Amino acid sequence: MEQIIQTLILGLALGGVFALMGSGLSLVFGVMRIVNLAHPSLIIAGAYATYWAFKLWGIDPLVMLPVAAIILAAIGVLLYKLVFEREARSAKYSEMTVLLTFATAMIVEGALGGMFTNTQRVTSPSYATDAIFIGNIFIPTGQLYAGIVSLLIISALALFLKYSRFGNAIRATTQNREAAELLGVNVNLVCIMSFAIGIGLAGAAGSLVSFVFSFFPAKHWEWVAVLMSLVVLGGMGSILGTVIASFMLCVVAAFVGAYVGATWSTMTFFLALFLILLIRPQGLFGEKPELA
Amino acid sequence: MPELLDVSSLTAGYGDGPAILDGAHLTVQPGKVHCIIGPNGAGKSTLLKAICGMLKIRKGDVKFKGESLKGLRPDQILRKGICFVPQERALFPKMTVRENLRMGGYSLADKSGLERAIDEIEERFPILRERRDQHAGTMSGGQQQTLAMARTLIVKPDIVMLDEPSLGLAPKIVQEMFDIMKVMASEGITILLVEQNALMGLKNADWGVVLDLGRTLFEGPAAEVMADPRIQELYLGGKKAA
Ligand SMILES: Nc1ncnc2c1ncn2[C@@H]1O[C@H](COP(=O)(O)OP(=O)(O)O)[C@@H](O)[C@H]1O
Ligand SMILES: [Mg+2]
Fold first, then answer.
1. What is the pTM of this model?
2. What is the domain count for chain A?
3. Which of B87, B94, B100, B159 to mutate to test the interface with A (most CBs of A within 10 A)?
4. How much is the mean pLDDT over chain B?
């Protein structure tokens, strides 16, 4: 029994972090129908910013988080303006954007490798290696903090999307771009801002990831498939779906890791992605593909 | 008195594609219901899209209150007082009815009266109040069309353009939609309606416009259009007299 609870807690803690990692990807897909393969590489960029801020100046990762988010959001605006904006009216939009995000991922990886080498890094504030004990059950403090901060950020995002005027414009554009335009929404501005928020979320996730996992420039390839499985299971573009999918899959992966074998844990995500695409391609909360 | 809206020898099309409209014209009298009829593919939807700014005006002109709308974006034309409800109704399926109504006021510079205006609309259309917290996509076709039409009222438009509001609705519901439209017209809102069912559209209209192959063939009082033997032959099934 204890081991079951223990496994559940570890799964949930990671679920929060992956939910944050996936939510920016989901937002960008929802608004622009861009499958941003560069998203995980930008999370790694955020992780490096956090790592060096801690290493050089002793800045706590949680303090660095908003800074990383803003830096990455600015990079997001630049990226959108330089790379994606001109594709907006292209007839081969989906093909082009997939290629462009793939190229972006390679460039980000190359740049990070060039600057920081391929050494494995992990930010090590004191809480990263601590644990809280409740009886015989332990909760790694770092994962707990990361999970809680992730959920706070996602809640803030959800409230912004639900209740602010601009958040409503973003949701409206996601659901019916032409209608939003007809009602006076500046759809191009919505695209730029959503891209900035999405990449900003990658930066924030990077800060948390930097002390939860060890990372190196090419690590993002591992996460592409993991995040895709979350976003697809949740229903492409549904942030709530991504969050629920993330908790589900991380808990399942934790149990697979504990009872089947650690090497099978990551396989959970790939297998899930495969099965979802076969059985329910619209995901848990997505529209049927033909209606999308 | 000048026409409220004056479309003259209009040429327009999609992107760099061929001209779909070529020589469309139309005059719109304030407070009247105008019905555009014509066969499938005639360019009726395209005409409404060109008027509301979704398509570029290549040649000719669209004048609203004597002022050209050439080169204006849809949101600018909306702010001038022309509202467009496209065939697909332009709703946000996963936003609530109330949120959909609020989006209707997105272009308003002054938001202070927005919630009041929405309350008033809910009062007029009780079904929308009943369903206020329900996702728009879960409502019936008639309710969705009601929402789309009611939503235009928020910006107090001069002209409302409706593209086939009857599409996919049961006959009884269709009559409800036409009744809403007529009430809107009685309040001084000018209606520009595209209708696939020509006879039904003209019966509910004051003015008829016949469009074919991107050109206006004929326009005049709805009763005259209905009575015209050529129009009857081509579009009204040939025998039913008005
Ligand atoms: N989005 C589009 N892109 C290119 N051509 C279009 C588009 N929509 C309609 N058309 C073409 O424009 C013509 C007129 O269409 P439309 O205005 O929808 O006709 P109607 O509403 O009278 O049935 C058709 O030949 C159609 O193929
Ligand atoms: Mg049409």
1. 0.92
2. 1
3. B94
4. 92
